[in-house]
């Protein structure tokens, strides 16, 4: 403390010296306490007065009600002379209850009694209307003189009622305000004494606190203290040495600006232990200890700091230390170069972290440009071979043409080739040289770079006018194969590139090239897998009359999976719907999916029941697992392990409107009824494919015309951010909102609502709207088991075809039906039934009760029979046999738009002549 601020020795500093901070604080505290005590006393007095008034009101009510309820009072009000009867009684009640008056009143408010007889017969002063209605009135009012004196009284008025509850008179009792005051006046000395005592206690406490404050401030006033702090702060933060003050426990109490800079302390470092400040261990140990050091050198970051430490108090008892820090790093030039090297090392580290965060070639190139700007270049462009962008292997033939993949810079108006443009390089450009030589090229002054200017003279002129003046072009190469070129430009606001900048640019480009090549290879593998998977999925909708179908398939971002679906037309106008999901991702899952889809097609062609199709698929998956284990193919390849799969298989019959379904571990389908209601049909859940030996339960669900059957894979309703129950609820809501839309619109609405931003699993969705065969397009009848009825069957077929307008197919249809019915009567068993279905084609079905199936064979010239099924195969577009629980059905389809169904194209004589051809 300076001599000007130190009080003179021997002078007693008064506590009430208003120039000192202690005196001002003491007076302020005394004034505040005095106001608080006065306010407390006033509040207590007011509360006591209020309590006294309340007590007077209670006493007046009690006195009035007691007198009004006394025996004989009601009869006294009805006596000929109420005053004579009531006057002595009211006076006696007044004296006993201690109130100042008890007055009996008539219902008109005329006094019957009063302490002074002269006031009897006069009008009562007060409100009596509520009392006439049977209520009690409490009020303050003035009236004639009383024994206690004249003035305002607290009075109550109560009614006097007879046995029937009629008000026959009123009674008023009250206490004057002077008497009420006597109730609280005895408390006033106590209240004042307590207030005075509190004031004395608080004053003493404030005086002690002010005395302590005076000792701490040495009697200085606020202005002097503020000026002293400003001088201290200015000196502390202006010195070029770091200053730290710590306490005995190792907490940081103070750090000036230089210490903050040298140690790179966090913003809120005060009051924290030195171990929590991120300092080197040796320096933290020194700050936490009590030892004194002189010019001890410590390395902090890239700085060499000379540390001096002394105890805060010379006695060493109270602890605490003062530490000074001085930057002893040698020459400024050396420091600058070290800073540049440190920044570049940091930039290389950031490049390793920020480049290659995705497996997208273009995004990886963009990350390279973003890392280099603005700390190494003002403008960065990346040009890649077209084959690299597409995921193909790069070749030297593509060097002449590069495509601009990314640009980053502070000046977006710089006249350079835009992103996406194909650039044809001339042989003299720095970019072509760096590709041919395999190392970077530095152009410190672009005005002298003839090859760069000759590439596009007009664009180069405008670029120079915008300030481009220096370039480093380095190849992007991985595994010794160039992928493209990275161009680092600087403008006039930055110094030109020097030869030592080339090695850093090459290192930066090398790291980016590895990431770009990884992304290219992933793009190639992903494209191959997606192409394979899409080639294995349906490419178009098959012709069928039963369903209006739409579907969507979205592969996962990280790789394709094994999701598949199919729509398979069956005999009799029926359609099979399949939705499956193979466990795992990659080519192995896609190949497995293709095998399963082919197997489903084959099993469907055999017209097997739903549960048998799933059973055969289960056997196939088990066999595939066994083959992989036997060959060791599951070791070390993608998708290793047991091949598991889920599948839902459904067959819809448009004639009956029934859908038979079974599912092997697959999510339950949804049905949207024509009125828009969405429900789960509760298909029994069976074990997934590949476990072996488990049965598959089926269920038959009636679907009205216009219903929508929705099949999907779990990628639509479940991901890492959403469980499957929440996904199913969201799917139900989306289908409810999409009610009444076409299947195509429903697919679009569902994906808009549920598709994740980054799908981690394949998504397959199939929506099928049901149709029914009109009854007018179905003809069915039973045929007696007698060959003689075959002509009548042909005639009935002819009549139905004429009704449908299909006379041109009459001969072929009669021939097929005749052969099939004859075959069923001769080789089958009753009952024999014939059914014709008229849709996109004409379907002829003949059912009988036997399980023997006809087969196509060649009949010799001398054979009397054996040509019937050959004729059926030649005339029909398709034919086959399906088995039912009651026998079999032989069916044949005739095309109605050319093909095998027209008589002119396939005459019967020409067909029969083929039996004589020995080449057949």
From TrEMBL:
<keyword id="KW-1133">Transmembrane helix</keyword>
<keyword id="KW-0812">Transmembrane</keyword>
<dbReference type="InterPro" id="IPR036890">
    <property type="entry name" value="HATPase_C_sf"/>
</dbReference>
<keyword id="KW-0378">Hydrolase</keyword>
<protein>
    <submittedName>
        <fullName>SpoIIE family protein phosphatase/ATP-binding protein</fullName>
    </submittedName>
</protein>
<dbReference type="InterPro" id="IPR000014">
    <property type="entry name" value="PAS"/>
</dbReference>
<keyword id="KW-0808">Transferase</keyword>
<feature type="domain" description="PPM-type phosphatase">
    <location>
        <begin position="544"/>
        <end position="770"/>
    </location>
</feature>
<keyword id="KW-0597">Phosphoprotein</keyword>
<dbReference type="Pfam" id="PF17203">
    <property type="entry name" value="sCache_3_2"/>
</dbReference>
<keyword id="KW-0418">Kinase</keyword>
<keyword id="KW-0472">Membrane</keyword>
<dbReference type="InterPro" id="IPR001932">
    <property type="entry name" value="PPM-type_phosphatase-like_dom"/>
</dbReference>
<dbReference type="Pfam" id="PF13185">
    <property type="entry name" value="GAF_2"/>
</dbReference>
<feature type="domain" description="PAS">
    <location>
        <begin position="230"/>
        <end position="295"/>
    </location>
</feature>
<keyword id="KW-0067">ATP-binding</keyword>
<keyword id="KW-0547">Nucleotide-binding</keyword>
<feature type="transmembrane region" description="Helical">
    <location>
        <begin position="26"/>
        <end position="49"/>
    </location>
</feature>
<dbReference type="InterPro" id="IPR029016">
    <property type="entry name" value="GAF-like_dom_sf"/>
</dbReference>
<dbReference type="InterPro" id="IPR029151">
    <property type="entry name" value="Sensor-like_sf"/>
</dbReference>
<dbReference type="InterPro" id="IPR033463">
    <property type="entry name" value="sCache_3"/>
</dbReference>
<feature type="transmembrane region" description="Helical">
    <location>
        <begin position="188"/>
        <end position="209"/>
    </location>
</feature>
<keyword id="KW-1003">Cell membrane</keyword>
<feature type="domain" description="GAF">
    <location>
        <begin position="368"/>
        <end position="526"/>
    </location>
</feature>
<dbReference type="InterPro" id="IPR003594">
    <property type="entry name" value="HATPase_dom"/>
</dbReference>
<dbReference type="InterPro" id="IPR036457">
    <property type="entry name" value="PPM-type-like_dom_sf"/>
</dbReference>
<dbReference type="InterPro" id="IPR003018">
    <property type="entry name" value="GAF"/>
</dbReference>
<keyword id="KW-0902">Two-component regulatory system</keyword>
<dbReference type="Pfam" id="PF13581">
    <property type="entry name" value="HATPase_c_2"/>
</dbReference>
<dbReference type="InterPro" id="IPR052016">
    <property type="entry name" value="Bact_Sigma-Reg"/>
</dbReference>
<dbReference type="InterPro" id="IPR035965">
    <property type="entry name" value="PAS-like_dom_sf"/>
</dbReference>
<dbReference type="Pfam" id="PF07228">
    <property type="entry name" value="SpoIIE"/>
</dbReference>
